[in-house]
Specification:
alpha/beta; 5-stranded parallel β-sheet; 3-stranded antiparallel β-sheet; 8 strands; globular; binds BIS(adenosine)-5'-pentaphosphate
Length: about 220
């Protein structure tokens, strides 16, 4: 099972990808998480990426392709994976074809559909565990204990790129640079559109249904 999640910022890619990875026992590969780890570790990549991410822009393709190439070469990705946040540009999508093999029959692309006006509210109320990456929402899915992660007990914080200004920039970049990627996969008839509005469990059920044979293909 090789799955790509596409969706605007705050559409629930990370939330749902974590659940799906645990259900299918395959790695959840989030380029956003990998970059945030690099920033926290103070690596060269992290120092280059931090200001770009904070501004809501995209990190250069060559850096991202290198990261994914290395990650997918690891043994745990051999049986399947969920890619969350990659590819985000047509250049990245074409390179991914070379990495996983063009026409890869097991590849499924899920596009989470959430209107822009719902996104800003979701993101400005999002909180993320600084240690394990667990995702919360102050209204829909709050941690039991204020700013403490239910899972690991570390601090739960707002991401530096979750300001309204950065979110609007990320949305603009999604429409301009990532929507063509959705069209790219639609043309290959491997894109499935999933309504991302509704309770978390309902969206998860829709995702599972879209993955079973006979699920609605958007093409
Ligand atoms: P990344 O971390 O990938 O950010 P993103 O795509 O903007 O997505 P988010 O993590 O903001 O949202 P999400 O869809 O995962 O939603 P979530 O589940 O958290 O990338 C960050 C940055 O890194 C980029 O801006 C870029 O700079 C760089 N980058 C990463 N990959 C790159 C690449 N390939 N190329 C270039 N640059 C790259 O949910 C959001 C909130 O909503 C949460 O609070 C959640 O609890 C809540 N929620 C979820 N589902 C629901 C629901 N059904 N109803 C109500 N609330 C919900």
């Amino acid at each position: 099972m090789k799955i790509i999640f596409i969706g605007p910022p705050g559409s629930g890619k990370g939330t749902q990808a974590k659940r799906l990875a645990s259900r299918f026992d395959i790695p959840h590969i989030s380029t956003g998480d990998m970059l945030r780890e690099a920033v926290a570790d103070g690596t060269e990549l992290g120092r280059e990426a931090a200001p770009i991410m904070a501004a809501g822009a995209l990190v250069p393709d060559d850096l991202m392709i290198g990261i994914i190439n290395d990650r997918l070469a690891k043994p745990d990705a051999g049986q399947g994976f969920i890619l969350d946040g990659f590819p985000r540009t047509l250049v990245q999508a074409e390179k991914l074809d070379n990495i996983v093999g063009n026409g890869q029959p097991a590849l499924r692309v899920l596009q989470l559909l959430v209107p822009d006006d719902a996104i800003v509210r979701r993101i400005t109320l999002r909180r993320t565990c600084a240690q394990c990456g667990a995702i919360y929402h102050l209204e829909n899915n709050p941690p039991a204990n204020d700013s403490v992660c239910d899972r690991c007990g570390a601090e739960v914080i707002a991401r530096p790129d979750d300001t309204e200004e950065a979110v609007r920039k990320r949305l603009e970049s999604f429409h301009r640079q990532t929507m063509p990627v959705a069209t790219y996969y639609k043309t290959k008839s491997i894109l499935r559109e999933v309504d991302g509005v509704g309770p978390l469990d309902v969206v998860f059920e829709r995702i599972e249904q879209s993955l079973v044979a006979g699920g609605k293909l958007s093409a």
